[in-house]
């Protein structure tokens, strides 16, 4: 079922969902299942599986380092199919511009269609780890908006190069990313909202936000998006702080602010366990308020580590 259908069916009740990252290649999938299992009692209607792009790795050959380019966490669509089959839930693979040509994206979407995967999250993706700015891959899209266009074309039976006539159209429900604190490359929140509107006009059915720690940023974003003519569901994406280093790391990686009261709570902690507890309590408070404020779904960036998300979900769902 589509994410938007799950939301409609819930009839105003807030749903629970979460996001996982594929294991490094060579690792057993069991660890992922062990982390998903405790979260299944909260009945997520869908689970997101991220896609990691290629990266440079350095291989030591007798003291000389060889630089190789490889994807360390492949398997997104396979994991989606495995989870869908094992738990009978919908899965949402992330589809990226970066690292994929349009052809490769088309093949991936064809696989999804055969597997009965009805939702995809369309993202531009991050720059490669050695790059300062995002660069489009050869034969790939520059912006998420163009990727949404390709998926929407497929929904209308239009494949690349118009090579086929179809009697079996895909009907993907398309998610895109939104930024309550603006995307780092956008000159202003307002211009970022215009870009978001372009994605919705190109066919996006719902929005998942970047993580935030101050709910007023989400509520203002939802208001501004409505004023800009965006009428699709806006799902808040949230993550509990779990280690002291997150105070520096999360603003650096995700370009977001951490509110002063949360910083001072974390700074008061004597050990990692206390920080984790502060993160859980803050996230419970955020979750309650978001629920009261009418958020359609609470989407947790668990990234495969479930114990804190489990405690939060126990308090909320
Ligand atoms: N769940 C996930 O995996 C999420 C990933 N992200 C990451 O966020 C980053 C951006 O991805 P998206 O939001 O999908 O990218 P996007 O293509 O929608 O936007 C990227 C940037 O380009 C700007 N932009 C868009 N269209 C433009 C145009 N035609 N001309 C000039 N500027 C334009 C936007 O304002 C924004 O600053 C990526 O790094 C992505 O991986 C963000 C949220 C969720
Ligand atoms: N720019 C960007 N890229 C993404 O891939 C991305 C977003 N934003 N925002 C939404 C989700 C959330 N994502 C993630 C990805 C990784 C962690 C993670 O494992 N973080 C580590 C530290 C990060 C690091 O070491 O780079 C952690 O300890 O929580 C969390 C959320 C992926 N998504």
TrEMBL record:
InterPro entries: FAD-linked_oxidoreductase-like (IPR029041), Mehydrof_redctse-like (IPR003171), MTHF_reductase_bac (IPR004620). It catalyses: (6S)-5-methyl-5,6,7,8-tetrahydrofolate + NAD(+) = (6R)-5,10-methylene-5,6,7,8-tetrahydrofolate + NADH + H(+). This is Methylenetetrahydrofolate reductase. Gene3D superfamilies: 3.20.20.220. CDD domains: MTHFR. One of its GO terms (molecular function) is methylenetetrahydrofolate reductase [NAD(P)H] activity. The keyword Oxidoreductase applies. Its EC number is 1.5.1.54. PANTHER family: METHYLENETETRAHYDROFOLATE REDUCTASE (PTHR45754), METHYLENETETRAHYDROFOLATE REDUCTASE (NADPH) (PTHR45754:SF3). Its cofactor is FAD. Pfam families: MTHFR (PF02219). It is an enzyme of class 1 (oxidoreductase). Belongs to the methylenetetrahydrofolate reductase family. Keywords: Amino-acid biosynthesis, FAD, Flavoprotein, Methionine biosynthesis, NAD, Oxidoreductase. The gene is metF. Pathway: Amino-acid biosynthesis; L-methionine biosynthesis via de novo pathway; One-carbon metabolism; tetrahydrofolate interconversion. It comes from the Bacteria.
């Amino acid at each position: 079922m589509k994410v938007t259908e799950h939301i409609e069916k819930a009839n105003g009740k807030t749903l629970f969902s979460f996001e996982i990252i594929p294991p490094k290649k060579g690792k057993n999938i069991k660890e992922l299942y062990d982390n998903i299992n405790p979260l299944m009692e909260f009945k997520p209607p869908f689970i997101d599986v991220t896609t990691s792009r290629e990266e440079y790795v350095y291989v030591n050959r007798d003291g000389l380092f060889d630089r190789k380019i490889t994807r360390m966490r492949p398997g997104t669509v396979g994991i989606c199919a495995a989870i869908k089959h094992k738990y009978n839930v919908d899965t949402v693979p992330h589809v990226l511009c970066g690292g994929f040509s349009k052809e490769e994206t088309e093949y991936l979407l064809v696989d999804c269609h055969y597997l009965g995967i009805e939702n995809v999250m369309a993202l531009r993706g991050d720059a490669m780890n050695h790059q300062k700015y995002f660069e489009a891959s050869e034969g790939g899209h520059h912006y998420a908006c163009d990727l949404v266009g390709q998926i929407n074309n497929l929904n209308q039976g239009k494949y690349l190069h118009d090579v086929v006539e179809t009697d079996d159209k895909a009907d993907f429900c398309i998610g895109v990313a939104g930024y309550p604190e603006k995307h780092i490359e956008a000159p202003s929140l307002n211009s970022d909202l215009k870009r978001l509107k372009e994605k919705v006009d190109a066919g996006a059915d719902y929005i998942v936000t970047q993580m935030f720690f101050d709910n007023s940023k989400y509520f203002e974003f939802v208001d501004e998006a409505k004023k800009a003519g965006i009428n699709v569901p806006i799902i808040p994406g949230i993550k509990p702080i779990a280690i002291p280093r997150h105070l520096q790391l999360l603003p650096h990686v995700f370009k977001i602010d951490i509110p002063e009261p949360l910083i001072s709570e974390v700074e008061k902690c004597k050990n990692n366990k206390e920080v984790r507890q502060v993160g859980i309590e803050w996230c419970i408070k955020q979750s309650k308020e978001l629920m009261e404020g009418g958020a359609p779904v609470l989407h947790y960036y668990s990234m495969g580590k479930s114990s804190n998300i489990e405690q939060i979900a126990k308090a909320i769902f």
